[in-house]
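To assess whether the prediction recovers the assembly geometry, we first specified each molecular entity separately, as shown.
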Amino acid sequence: MRRLGKYSIGLGDRFGRQGRAQLRALEMARGLGVEVAPVWNKSHREHTLLHSQPASVRREADEATAALGWPGDYHVDADHIRLATVAPFLETHDFFTLDIADFIGQPDGPDDAHAFITRHHDLASKLEIPGLDEPQSFSPEGLAVVVRRYLPAVREAGRIYRRIASARGAGSFITEISMDEVAAPQTPEELLVILTAVADEGIPLQTIAPRFSGLFAKGVDYQGDVAQLAGEVDRHLCVLRHARRALGLPADLKLSVHSGSDKLSLYGPLRRILRRHDAGIHLKTAGTTWLEELIGLCESGGDALAMVKEIHAGARGRLRELCGPYASVLALDPARLPPLETVAGWGGATFARALRHDPACPGYDPHLRQLLHVAYPLAGEMGARFLEALDRHAETVARNVTANIFERHLRPLFLDDRDAAA
Ligand SMILES: [Zn+2]
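The predicted structure of the complete assembly is given in tokenized form:
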């Protein structure tokens, strides 16, 4: 089976220019003794909005790893694909994130659920899971509700998995299931039912992305109760450990956190929980790099700064259209955006400070950051003009991209207490 390292990170790169700059951050972590496998991911939604082809992501990953002589594994993730959208990714990708959100709660054959409950009647009795305070237990009615809710979705995952396996060959790719883009979080009990169904379907699942409580808004920090979230992750990890042993799921099955970029306040608590469980994690933080490109262009000043202002002005006029595809994952209040004329008068350093994810900085503006997070289609429309600006200012942009991934993500999630121990 294609293995995914204990720690891995899903890096996005809207325009395919920052492969090396991102990888350099992982090299720095590696130099400090922590191996994190890079996974380049770009969703069907991003490819559609930018009219890009999945093969371009594979080329970028191959090019970056070759250029830096990256000695470890790396992968290319078909992020959030469905049965209808998987085909263009089959040839070039080796990591597939099966998005089953639309199938949760869909009606399935009632006999299907009945047969599942009969087969797994132990779920309705008290099930001791090491590490969990209370035994997991469902009333027969409660179990039926959960099974009817999730079984059709896992069946769909089975269909997508088999489609990929028949095209690529079983064992030649990594399988993730994502359920993060739904309204309600999954409880650890529900996760157990889901994993039982996954094992039934014969899916060699390696990462699973549940919906956690709180809001994972695009590009800005976590909004919710961090302690509650930490407890949730802790219980999910107990369920995963149980699932690996009792259900025969792959030994490297781990949680995937679709961060929506930059959930900085979660990294410390997550690091401590992972250490306690000796557990791995896959962290997706994709959109963050596009914002660093803008920050680099701001710092470069002149035409580059003017281009960022042009993107900003365009985004103000197309707010509704740009936010539409991301409606459920934005906490953007248009009334709190700075006046257009104010931004038009900013110098590069001021604009960069407003965008850079430093919550302690008085100039930081989370609303502006979210607006520009979803404004990448405008840069796509600029085409060569935007890409040429990135190339002209490659050094300044790359410096920001690398520092962001290393300092704000890898260091707090994987390295911080190593520093303390050293
Ligand atoms: Zn996601």
